[in-house]
Amino acid sequence: QKEVEQDPGPLSVPEGAIVSLNCTYSNSAFQYFMWYRQYSRKGPELLMYTYSSGNKEDGRFTAQVDKSSKYISLFIRDSQPSDSATYLCACSSGSARQLTFGSGTQLTVLP
Amino acid sequence: DGGITQSPKYLFRKEGQNVTLSCEQNLNHDAMYWYRQDPGQGLRLIYYSQIVNDFQKGDIAEGYSVSREKKESFPLTVTSAQKNPTAFYLCASIGQRGSSYNEQFFGPGTRLTVL
User: Fold this and answer.
1) Residue B42: enclosing H or E segment and its boundaries?
2) Phi and psi based region of residue B16 (left: phi greater than 0; alpha: psi -120 to 50; beta: remaining)
3) Contact, A109 vs A14, CB < 8 A?
């Protein structure tokens, strides 16, 4: 069993839809939870990070962490075609020195 | 303009050859990482280095080697011992974001194909 599980998709939604991306993890030591966005043939870029449980909002993006159920989510409101990318969740027990990645979810937002 | 550069962008290798992938950063970061990305498998850690002249094996180090002679540079050699080297290779370095979190910054990647 992988430490971080993520549905690979692909996920296709119409423009303006609310997107929900999810990961589950098994390691109770994880304290930092990140979402990276990766455009095709590019390196990942950090989208959001959350420490411990709770919600974090940044514009159209909201990250949620529920440590009791070991479940992390990323919500994208009013999705745009420019949001089309692969989204990777990542977890860490320290300050990002050892990241464990999910397999990534490929998202396409149709105009 | 600070960042991480990787070269080449595309690399083709014949079976039995060693190839070296370049990774350079001008962010003054101490820690650098190498990942391999395959479709549907996310990123897997090959090697990492937290300081010059020191490096550690990651989860899939077999068939790879690295060096860290300078802070700015962390080249990865894919040897002929690596049986399935075709993949997308990503280099990263760690820097601080705010006062409490160290972020991994990624380079643009090198796509290696074995012919």
Assistant:
1) none
2) left
3) yes
Report the alpha-carbon distance of residue A36 to residue A79 in Å, rounded.
16
Tell me how far apart the alpha carbons of residues B9 and A24 are, in angstroms, rounded to a whole number: 33
Residue A56 · residue A33 · CB < 8 Å: no
Kindly determine whether residue A96 and residue B43, on different chains, have CB atoms separated by under 8 Å. Answer: no
Residues with Cβ within 8 Å of B99's Cβ and at least 6 positions away in sequence, in order, are none
Query: Which residues are CB-neighbours of A10 under 8 A, at least 6 positions away?
Result: A105, A106, A107, A108
> Tokens representing A108?
């396409």
Kindly state the average pLDDT of the residues A15-31: 95
The answer to whether the beta carbons of residues A35 and A63 sit under 8 Å apart is: yes
Q: With an 8 Å Cβ cutoff, are B90 and A41 in contact?
A: no
Beta bridge partners of A46: A36
Q: For the segment B35-61, what is each residue's pLDDT rounded down to a tens digit?
A: 999 987 789 999 999 999 999 999 999
Query: Which of B41, B88, B103 comes nearest A96 by C-beta?
Result: B103
Nearest Cα to Cα of residue B91 among B72, B108, B67, B113: B108
